[in-house]
Amino acid sequence: METLRRAFFEDPLYLYVAAALAEAILFVIWRETRKRGLALALLAPVAFAACVFAVSRFVVTDREQIVAATEEIAADVQAGRTTAAEKYLAEDFTGYYRTKQHALDEARSAIETYRFKLIELKDVEVAVTGRRAVMSLTTVVIPGAGLAAGRRFSHAWDVHWVKLPAAGREVWRIIDVVPKNRPGP
Known about the structure:
The chain has about 180 residues and is an alpha+beta fold. The protein has 2 domains: about 1-60; about 60-180, Nuclear Transport Factor 2, Chain: A (Roll). It is about 50% helix and about 30% strand. α2 packs antiparallel against α4. The longest helix has 21 residues, at about 15-35. The protein is elongated and about 70 Å long.
């Protein structure tokens, strides 16, 4: 079930390939027989691909919401701000960075010290279970200032998310961030 959900909503490439293959097979058969029914059947794979495209564009899955929020935080930090982090950190954030305020202070200090030239997200994996999710990822950073300026560092993280009610809807918020390694800035 998870494979189908992912194929339809997040990564429909294989479905497009299957539709193109079905179209090619139907076209070859139609060319040999020239039957009107097969000519109409040629519309089915095209219609299927159009439906898959519409569904994948209009349905935003939990996984996609979490990845988009993480990308927003990374872009914001690279731009020297913590606005997105403030938005996505839960009020009861705990763990390695202790509190939301402490985590934001650490982020502001890192931004001030390193003025990041680049923050990339790599190897992003999100496992959603009900109202909780765990994201494993690696960030690649290039500081623009300090002793480490211009050097490339990577950090692996586990980010724990929870779906919380907010303003009449549910939103994903970070409840804990666990660093897997601590080399470099």
